[in-house]
Amino acid sequence: MTNFVSAPALNLPDVPIQLAKRTFLAGSTDASMPAAISQLPTATFPLVLQPKPGLHANDISVPDWAADANKWIDAVLHEHGAVLLRGLPLLSADDFTRFVEGLDCETLGYAGGIALRDAVTSKVMTASYEPPEVSMEPHNEMAYTSVYPSKVLFFCETPPACGGETPIVDVRQYAQLIDPALRQKVTQTGIKYLRHLPHQRAASFASWQQTFYTDEKQDVKRFMDERGFEFYWDEDDNLTYSYVRPATVPHPKTGEDVWFNQLVSHHASYFQGYPDDAHADFDYHRSPFHSQYGDGTEFSPDIIAHIREKIWLCAVAFSWQQGDVLVLDNLLVQHGRMSFEGSRRILVSLVK
Ligand SMILES: [Fe+2]
After folding, report:
1. Does the fold of domain 180-307 match that of domain 4-175+316-351?
2. How far is the CA of 139 from the centre of ligand 1 (A)?
3. Rounded to whole angstroms, how far apart are CA atoms 342 and 164?
4. For the whole model, what pTM was predicted?
5. Distance 108 CA to ligand 1 centre (A)
6. Are 168 and 337 in contact (CB under 8 A)?
7. Which residue of 163, 232, 239, 299 lies most exposed, with the fewest beta carbons within 10 A?
8. What is the domain partition of the chain in residue ranges?
9. How confident is the model over 204-238, as pLDDT tens digits?
10. What percent of the chain has pLDDT over 70?
């Protein structure tokens, strides 16, 4: 017995979401960048669930809604990749926290992550502090680490007044559009992820002291040695480290190998056109993050543009409503964030 019923497909936001030549979007000046997000949401992506007609959402407790949602998520998420729960009686971070608790799943912290996030409650974080004028390209959450969430839950506490959509991309669809020879080569070599963390006395972005919560190089060395990461200190005590991760991983439920990496969203070209001058025009080796083939050779600009094009060709966007909960299978679906104006508060919970 379920109190949810599936709803018709969502509408694309009224105003086209520009991509080509969009300010502060990585790759937007590439000739191959699509003009705008063009795929419509369908009845199956994202699958929209809402309370049955005639049912008052408030008549059912948040934990009971969560238990009901949990059954749907278990049954259909690995097929659809994305489920939007709309019309639940959730107003605040505390409500969302109770909902996540009711899902009976283990949540994951953000240790080792790149973005700045604040814990709002024990299970809920702010989604991102990237400047509002920046559009973040779709990515699988923390696909550059060995410990990543299996699901990502977003909650819309305050819908954006203008823009601020969360584009979603079915990885199974876009991976098929990537040049097969390129996909094969990247699958063979894996992807090398590089981080460059300045000493705090010269830091214009996160220092190694901030990132590892220590002033001692010995602590950093232990972290690197435990993981088998390559690292070195330059003459100014700045830290560079790197490691290789596979480009695909087996899906825990279906066993299929899925394209799961941050080849483009971890690439230093992300910072081209970034509004902060401190990040502009990096030598790639001094960029806060960067990606290469697993053997250490660079991806050509054409390859980065090719993959960005395919991701955006498959992007689907919709307008947030207060109380929406978007549940993503993190291995199957990427998420991004379009720039916005005015207030917007989307919270996130990462599920182990
Ligand atoms: Fe993210």
Report:
1. yes
2. 6
3. 10
4. 0.93
5. 14
6. no
7. 232
8. 4-175+316-351, 180-307
9. 677 898 888 889 999 999 999 998 999 999 999 99
10. 93
Q: Position 49: which residue type?
A: L
Alpha carbon of 114 to ligand 1 centroid (Å): 10
Q: What is the pLDDT of residues 45-65, one digit of tens each?
A: 999 999 999 999 999 999 999
Instruction: Give me ligand 1 centre to Cα 182, in Å.
Output: 25
Mean pLDDT of the chain: 91
Q: Measure 330 CA to ligand 1 centroid, in angstroms.
A: 10
Tokens 């809402």, residue?
50
CATH of region 180-307:
3.60.130.10
Domain 4-175+316-351 has CATH 3.60.130.10: yes
**What does the DSSP 8-state code read for residue 9?**
P
Q: Where are the alpha helices (DSSP H) in the chain?
A: 62-80, 93-102, 171-177, 180-189, 208-212, 217-227, 301-313
The rounded Å distance from CA 222 to ligand 1 centre is 28
